């Protein structure tokens, strides 16, 4: 805790932390305002709502799969602080387009296809923006922090990210869509301002030519990164974790509306609980490990996560909806007998997930040379995004096959078991490396 407090007060960390926090906040304010508005206002079909939610997620994820190799090369071979400032400047333009799409959809002055397309275009651009920002937020930590501060810094970034997700999600569910349109532009401008204070982070390697061939550079990057068994296992375990997260986040709004007969405020509450839980897990695992980078708690954490996913499925499965009474507001939802068990099981999923994933990210930034950290994170993003898209496709396939949305939650529980197996192999590789 002392290390964490010290970092928050340091210019080596604070400007990056705040910039990242605003970035995550804006991503989620825009994305959730858009999804909630479309699901609860424009569409009235579980199939259409689920399809839109999945398409929106896929569009946001796709740039990570296609452009992460280039983003990693740039971050390792150019000044990271300068790239942050360029990326944050572009966010202002993107949010002007996204905000316009929200306002036009709210006004209904232009046909629905155009406004939805405009909103999705901005979401795709935000995916590109986050692809280039993503490798830097972790790769810059070993460059600015001391070795015994990296785990604490990673935990704070992860916790701050989910607090920002929490804040953006709350606002998206509760404020009018026209206010959200203004909010995303203002937040982008403030984020650009805080980015100016991030200290220089010059490249730690020789300036090499950039490879703009998407497929070749991605394959080369992954092949090079995966040579270290510990890094390979960490990336694979993280990928399964984010696949589970992607499936859950896709399902929350349609599940809240169609299975639980709950309003968009309740769907927002689900995402809030999830974000709080990951933040708690992120900080807790740092306290347990006392600053040491280790995956020893990861296997048991993700097993606990699987248990809570099954508990969440069971509560949803036994929920008695009352569609004739209209959608439940937050107060009405909380008065339901199974509301508290449902929220506690969701919180358990998130806390265990945070404890599982944070040490794995610390692995990626401490067990490789500092000159390769951004490319390692980029390789992780490529594999993660590919796994998340695959998970989304599987979820869509299950919906097309007639599998009820609530039963699709069990897919997440099964993926947790795979993550636990990978986590256990990572711990074994870690023990072998210590003996050497």
From TrEMBL:
One of its GO terms (cellular component) is plasma membrane. It is found in: Cell membrane. The keyword Transmembrane helix applies. It holds the Pfam family MFS_1. The chain crosses the membrane at residues 50-71, 92-110, 116-138, 150-173, 179-198, 231-254, 266-288, 300-320, 340-364, 385-403, 409-427. Keywords: Cell membrane, Membrane, Transmembrane, Transmembrane helix, Transport. It is a multi-pass membrane protein. The keyword Cell membrane applies. Coiled coil: none annotated. One of its GO terms (molecular function) is transmembrane transporter activity. This is MFS transporter.
